[in-house]
Structures are given as C-alpha cells and as structure tokens.
Amino acid sequence: MVGLTGLAAALESYRGRDRLIRTLGYCSQLVGGVLVGYCPARSEVGTRLLVLSSQLSHCRTILRLFDDLAMFACTTQYGLGAKEEDVLVRCLSVLGNLADQLYYPCEHIAWAADTKILPVDSARWWVLSTAFWGLSLLLGIARSLWMVLKLRQQLRSPTPAFISQLPRSQRRAMRAQMQSELLTILSNLADLANAVHWLPPGILWAGRFPPWLVGLLGTISSLLSVYQAIQASGWADPATS
Known about the structure:
single chain; mainly alpha; 2 domains; 78% helix; 0% strand
C-alpha cells in the first residue's frame, strides 16, 4: 500500500508522469521492434506497439513546450556555480545547463515546423536539438566520471586518520552518491547511443540501430532514472533512502 501511495504521489508530479510515459514508450518500441523484426506472426501487434511508442514520444515533445521557464530558472539559480568548490565540476555544469537551455527552443521550432506552424525546414532543427542533447549527455558523463573519481579517492585515502574521522553517515552518503553517479553514467551512455543514432547518416553509427535496439537502450535509461527517483524519494522503503 505504501508503494502504491508513493507511485500515485509520483504520478501527480510532472517529472514522475514524464518518467512513466518515457518508460512505456521505449518498452513499447522494444517489444514492437522485436515482434516486427523476428516474429512475423505477431508483426501486426508489433506495428501497433511502434505506433503507440511514437505517440507517447510525441506526447512528451508537446509537454516539453512548457519546460523552458523551469530550465531557465534552474540555469539562473546555478549561475556560474559560485558555490561549487570544484572548478571542473563548475565548468561542466555551466556548459551542460547552457546545452540544455538551447535544446528546448530548437526542439520547439522543429515541432512547429512539422506541424506547419512555422515555414522552416524541420530537419535541421531536429538535428540541432539532438546535437545539443548529445552534448549535454557528454558533459553529464564527464561530470559524473570526475565525481566518481573524487569520491573514490576520498574513500580510499592513504591516510587512515582521514577516513576514521569521517562520520559513518557521511561515508554512507559518499558511497550512495558514488553509486548514483555511476547509474547516471550508464543512463547517459544509453541515451547518448540513441542520440548519435538520430543524427544524420555518416556520423558514427547514425541511422544504423533497429527499432528494438533503440527501445532497449531507452528502456535501460528510463528504468535507471526511475530507480534513482525511487532511491531519492524512498518510495519503496525508508531504509533505502
């Protein structure tokens, strides 16, 4: 009952609902791609699932039309990261916020072009938005890798006195943060693989993924994001927070 209540509360929020739509969309693409590609007898069901996945993705695109202000507030609140002690983390975070901020208007223009609201070529704007997304993911991976290295170095300090002076709760928090950063790296790598796939042909593996592989990578990323949200909010068990 507690888990159901927590899930219901999460779905009341925009982010919680977006995670669910994203997970369902990629799962539908994964199953639909497998059925269409490898189960001819079930290809009709697979096609319907792929249509469902496309519609869920379109739904998220529509909802992101209203994300600019929230992203701008986040960007301005962080600013130049004056409160951040690590210079590299500060630089990567500022650049990541900038890439995220530029991603949204590019996607909005691409959507508006597809719907004939704006008389422009949507393809170049989709490519630009995907490029900003990929850049944001790369910066996020670099930031998380640096954080993992720093935390690992602190936890494995050659000075035993340093570790012994840390409260147990702080050591536990550092290990939890390191685990979270590792999960973020895995999630971003899965998304980055898909981002490259959606770039114009000729760039690395762009356009070479079958639908089921895109769905698999997206499902992995989505489930990791859901797990991290559960860990952060403690839906499943207060002891895990």
